[in-house]
Amino acid sequence: MNYLPHTDADRTHMLAACDVERLEDFFDLIPEQHRFPALDLPEPLSELEVLRELQELAESNAEASHHPCFLGAGAYHHYVPALVNHMLLRGEFMTAYTPYQPEVSQGTLQTMFEYQSMICALTGMEVANASHYDGATSTAEAVIMALNQFRGRRAKIILSATLHPQYRQVVRTYTQGMGLTIVGDDDSAADLDDIIAQLDDQTALLILQYPNFLGELEDMRGLQNAVHDVGALLCVVANPIALGMLKPPGEYGADIVVGEGQPLGIPMSYGGPYLGFFATREKYVRKLAGRLVGETVDANGKRGYVLTLTPREQHIRRDKATSNICTNQGLMATAAAIYLSVLGKQGLRKVAELCYHKAHYAADCIDVLPGFSVRRERAFFHEFALRCPGPVAEINTALFDDYGLIGGYDLGQDYAHLENHMLLAVTEMATREDIDCLVEALGEIT
Amino acid sequence: MTWNTPDDRKYAETDEWIILTGDSATLGLTDYAQDQLSDIVYVELPVSGETFEQGDIVATVESVKAAADVHMPMSGAVTEANSAIEDEPEKVNADPYGEAWFIKLTPADPAEIDSLMDADAYARHCAARDD
Amino acid sequence: MSALGSRLEPLVYDLSRPGRSGAPLPEPDVPHAELPSDLLREELGLPEITQLDAVRHFQRLSQLNHSIDTGFYPLGSCTMKYNPRINEDAARLPGFLHAHPLQEANTVQGSLALMYELQEWLKEIGGFAGVSLQPAAGAHGELTGILMMRAYHLARGDMARHKILIPDSAHGTNPASTTMSGLEVIELPSDGRGNVDVKALRAECGEDVVGLMITNPNTLGLFEEHIEEVVQLTRDCGGLIYGDGANMNALTGVIRPGDFGFDVMHYNLHKTFSTPHGGGGPGSGPVGVSERMADYLPSPIVAIIEEGDEKEPPLYGFAAPPKTIGRMKAFNGQFGVLVRAYAYIRIHGAAGLRANAEHAVLNANYLLSKVRAEYHLPFERACLHEFVVEGRWRGAPDVHALDVSKRLMDFGFHPPTNYFPLIVHEALMIEPTETESRETLDAFADALLQIAATARDNPEELRGAPHTTPVARMDEVRAARQLVLCCRPKFLSEPAQAPYT
User: Fold this and answer.
1) A323: which of A6, A108, A365, A422 lies 20 to 30 Å off by Cα?
2) Are residues A361 and A333 in the same domain?
3) The predicted structure's pLDDT at residue B129
4) Are residues A316 and A429 in the same domain?
5) Under CATH, which architecture does the C87-347 domain have?
6) What ipTM was reported for this prediction?
7) Is the Cβ pair B65, A311 closer than 8 Å?
């Protein structure tokens, strides 16, 4: 089936207007041996049959609405107020594109302006762009921005070992043609002092995650001086829900704050689409990648919004652009704007505290189980590392098969010193019963 | 369409002008260039002390719809940058040959000026590109 | 509020009143833990509004947009076709929506099976040996592809190659992706029929060439007449071929780029396979690759880990290609977008996809036939799914393409793409797509013809357009000179005031 409106009469009339006999004739220029290949695709289905097929596939997944989920590691199960999805389904938001023509795009533009404003408020920064693909690509773009800031004169990047392992991989993939030196995470057990020791006058950027990948809150107080003393920039990769209660990275002197915006009203959806947020200081705005919305007035003096500083971008500056990014995550930024508006000042703080209390309740209960101990080197937010009496994979299998629980992340796969350590995340979605069930299950498994 | 091309200075193909006075030279963007770019909204200048080869990018200008690089017509060291046009980029549109100079420099090789166009040649260069 | 400075809709911060909240959250059902007092923030500059405030605010904002759902949207190069609503329901099935990206493979076989099938279909549609679903958008797919091409040469010890050849009609993302990959852009001119200039290509081909990036049909909507020669020349000097798949809607089921020797191509799922554009994303830019490039695909891709049989389906999981360039983004691609593309391809089948391309081309040529008497066509050829005309007339020197675009809004249409490609003066790039009816195309053509007449008779009417939109022409110079990129949250605790000014 298809969604074409053409009747036979339409087709005849239109072909005649084009002076063409048959539809195929439009493609005469194409070498004949390559024209109209027989594609081996399944036979078409009606909408209702396709939905049935997809329902079957979807139902074969075990997922967080049926199984209490203690897996986090960069993607989190949070409550999304129903109105967020209802607003996203507004065709005027969903089926518009990049707002190149401001006179007929004020809805998207003002929503992006509000998104930028709320991201600035959350992170304690001065400007934010209209989004990147996800937290990892935002982090990679932070690296490129820092290199541009130093116009190539500094080529060393320091990554904290407790930056998300996949983010570190993406930074390396993105920059493989740029001739950089990337250090800091060679020893997966390196701590903050170790990476500070690697700062020098060749360093362009130091990247730290807050809370870090292990859920911990590193002491960021002395960091900005150390970084700025050598003239480098500081980038903090932050969890936006944690910023509902914790001091924003701006207060710690960060030059760039990026992160994964998925917790802000976006479902986990098996890994995407998510939202990379990116905020910085106003003085770096010309080096910023991506779309930016600014306020102005129209010919009659009415206030409104436009895409601005576009000469930074690929469609104008081409090979000299700050980035190649074009399509970003507009609708996901819209979701975050609606989420932050409706939760607001009190609601976001409350979500953060719910996560904090529940995670600490879980940690306290599990810590007393024989064979388990919670790593407590630092304060943590809603995720913590748990030393287990055996391999994490085996424990997870038992948790799922016998108790229907989605267990934590196996830290041993990225951190040699954390073999048999599980990273557990607890959000407001976990009830006390869910947590008690996890505690009981862990107690019984061993 | 014609553009102002004062004959007291030399011009580069890439639309910069330069005036040599003693050991020092002053560089700016031509009337043609500011007209093509339309409303200039941003200028980025080098800091004094930086040195550049002939042809190097020394500054950038942006309008709403375009960006352009400003090249060094002669090799040399920057001695002064005109911060007034960073604060008020519209001056580049208003007075490209006067108030809106970009940088002063000490040329490394004053003979390089001979490779540049005079006002007549530059005026023809502009007319040839006028579609 | 005075007329100067008034807004169509207040900012969300203007609606804020201390103490309001739209989030009915439960009280903790666990003991309170002690908060880390020295780490807590003092202020959080978010608005305080009710759910009703939020619904009205965003609903009213949405109504200020033009969208496919509200009217014709012939934005060239963007393929703004009907977005079937079934796809939205499919992507929101709870089993897809709430699966965590790091779950054990055996608990998410539904998601993995869908990704595997989609990989297979995209291979078949493009004639490729491998596909990665990881890239998040077209430009992200380009970066992926160029990094793979670079890695391919390096792995063969071919260290001197550093140039990517790109036609001057290309999307700006092509050169930008090249620079990000640490390679050099060599721009190729177009010939008198809008093709890549083969002579210029021949002159640039050498042992320093990584490859060629080409869009086919190109951004003029024209099929590259010398495509086989272009591919051969590039290959002869050891270069690889990158296809920009942005215009694939002209050719699904008509050709397979792999059959022409393309080594890498990205698909724009949000264009060709009709996933919604969302006001600027999310897109999705899977890459298809030839046999020799398959080992370099970004990691991971979905593979069959254990073959199935009559009783058991296969077991799907992730696998890393042996010479992978690495990971391009966290987790598993834009999964929700992949579900929509899966549904779209499944509904159409091979015949439906070909019919889409044929009718996209029919619609573009029909529209062109109606307007070409009044709009200059820089290259006198039949087009494929889109065409580029000039928005200027000898008799109306002060009228520009932008004026045509702005005036089209008064007729209820979204303007075409303006000022692109750069090689056409005053370009208007028009892509009607296959889902638009003859009546819509007729109405749009009438509007264009009326505007052409107005350009001569009453140019001021065009220069002042639009006259009927929520705002008049915006002052973009002011926006760039006096940057206001966010409203200052520090005023939030004084809600009686507007948050800034």
Assistant:
1) A108
2) no
3) 84
4) no
5) 3-Layer(aba) Sandwich (3.40)
6) 0.98
7) yes
Q: Cβ–Cβ contacts within 10 Å for residue A169, how many?
A: 19
- Please give the residue range of the domain that contains residue B40: 24-129
Mean pLDDT, rounded, of chain C: 94
Q: Are residues A248 and A124 in the same domain?
A: yes
Question: Which SS3 state, helix, strand or coil, does residue B2 take?
Answer: coil
If asked whether residues A321 and A349 sit together in one domain, one would say no
Q: How far is A316 from chain B (nearest CA, A)?
A: 6
The residue among C27, C55, C102 with the most chain A CBs within 10 A of its CB, best to mutate, is C102
Best probe of the B interface among A282, A316, A318, by most B CBs < 10 A, is A316
Q: Characterize the bridge pairing of strands C163-167 and C209-215.
A: parallel
Closest CA of chain C from A239, distance in Å: 14
The boundaries of the domain holding residue A366 are 345-445
Residues of C in contact with B42 (CB under 8 A): 480
Flag whether residue C390 sits within 8 Å of chain B, measured between CB atoms.
no
Question: Which CATH number among 3.90.1150.10, 3.40.720.10, 2.30.130.40, 3.30.430.20 corresponds to the domain C350-479?
Answer: 3.90.1150.10
Tell me the CB-side half-sphere exposure of residue C70, using CA atoms within 13 A. 21
Q: Is residue B18 part of a domain?
A: no
Residue C489's pLDDT is: 52
- Closest partner residue to A177 (CB to CB) among C182, C298, C335 is C182
| CA gap C98, C54 in Å, rounded | 25
Q: Which of C238, C222, C292, C301 has the alpha carbon at shortest distance from C264?
A: C292
For position C488, what pLDDT does the model report?
67
List where CATH 3.90.1150.10 sits in chain C: 350-479
| pLDDT one-digit tens code per residue, C182-232 | 999 999 999 999 999 999 999 999 999 999 999 999 999 999 999 999 999
Cross-strand pairs, A207: A159, A235
Q: Does residue B15 lie in a domain region?
A: no
Ranges of beta strands (E only) in C369-476 are 387-390, 417-418, 427-430
